[in-house]
Amino acid sequence: MDENEWVAGISRKDAGRYSRQLLVDDFGVNGQKNLKSSKVLIVGAGGLGCPVATYLGAAGVGTLGIVDYDQISLDNLHRQVAYKETQVGQSKAQGLAEQIKSQNSDVNVVVHNISLDSSNAVEIFKNYNIVCDCTDNVATRYLINDVCVILNIPLVSGSALRWDGQLSVYHYGPDCPCFRCLFPSAPDPSSVTNCNEGGVLGPIVGTIGSMQALEVMKIAANVPSTLAGKLLLFDGREGKSRTIRLRKRDPKCAVCGDNPTITTPIDYVVFCGAGAHDKIEHLNLLAECDRVNVEEYRDIRKNQKQILLDTRPPVEFEIAHLPEAINVTLNECRSLPAAEISSRLGIDSSESNVYVICHRGNDSQRAVLLLREKIDKIRFRDIIGGYEDWANKINDKFPLY
Questions:
Q1: N or C: fewer beta carbons within 10 Å in the chain?
Q2: Could you read off the pLDDT of 124-142 as tens digits, one per residue?
Q3: How many domains is the chain built from?
């Protein structure tokens, strides 16, 4: 045999680049070839999207699509490790694409710098064969799920909040449920917390995002052991994880059931009672006479000492607060009797006004509604925009978070 003849299952370039994963049992050459022919869509270029995109790009996925309409901000950098300080203000999708291409120029990266909604999701998704949900809100989760089912695309879904993370694969196999099978009705928007409000530690999203990338690689390589029909729960505080088996596909499911009623994307804002984005909602629950802006409160507190009720959790209260603030959380406003709240605030029937503040002006309004029902002789007034407005408009040294 001529010394220049040989049988090769993969190119010299790819063999050299991906040699360590080519040596893995049940992955090998076929797995690498399948990965290279895969087209993976990542929805969300944040804390989960960064590790998903980074690992899949490095592993040699043929095409990576990235959907995100947001810009990089300073408070992203502790967990969205693909970005640098110099990129603050730039497009997340474009920034992540540049990071992937700088690491692996062979990857075809498609940027969708757009807000995903019912009008554009099908046109975007139809070009991919695996989807990763790396978003942070319920409305978009339903949208992504429904479109994946409609187009028959497996969905790798991750979430992370505070110390905890979750991961599952939906609509992958005949018995595998979709997200809507498990949650046919959307939760009350007021009960849902995202990382903007609840916080999250960077290694938690890094862990879940890395595992999402691993599930994509297994699906692409046709490795039978995946998290389809299972839910992985990760407890970062205790360093524990467990996997629970989910119930099978619901034959009565509105989107993946035997007789589906949802065959095209619906209005997810109406269905969920909240917009399909992860930005902070600005509520308007009170009449104007029950609210003051931060400039008005600044002038009021100059003239005489005021009682200021701060509804934030203690961990936020410790970050910064005005010196007159008394910490009574929203949950305490809801659960404590009127006498105990009055005692905590040091108020009696002679008091006329108590001002209520929170992070951004949402929970303070909820607290006013609760407190006026419990303590009818006191006038509770909300401070519009909360401490965020105070930092932006009154005191630029006050910590923003």
A1: N
A2: 999 999 999 999 889 999 9
A3: 2
Cα-Cα end-to-end distance for the chain: 69
Q: Nearest 5 degrees, angle CA 222-CA 165-CA 172?
A: 25
- The one catalytic residue among 132, 134, 148, 195: 195
- Do 153 and 205 share a domain, yes or no? yes
Q: What is the CATH number of the domain that holds 381?
A: 3.40.250.10
| Residue 134: active-site member | no
Cα-based angle 313, 351, 372 (whole degrees, multiple of 5) = 55
Does 252 count as an annotated binding residue? no
Query: Is 132 a known active-site residue?
Result: no
Task: Give the residues across from 41 on adjacent strands.
Answer: 65, 131
Q: pTM value?
A: 0.77
Task: Please tell me whether 284 is known to bind a ligand.
Answer: no
Q: Is 47 annotated as a binding residue?
A: yes
For residue 101 the two structure tokens come to 């291409």
Q: Which of 272, 299, 333 is the last residue of a domain?
A: 272
Contact 354, 309 (CB under 8 A): yes
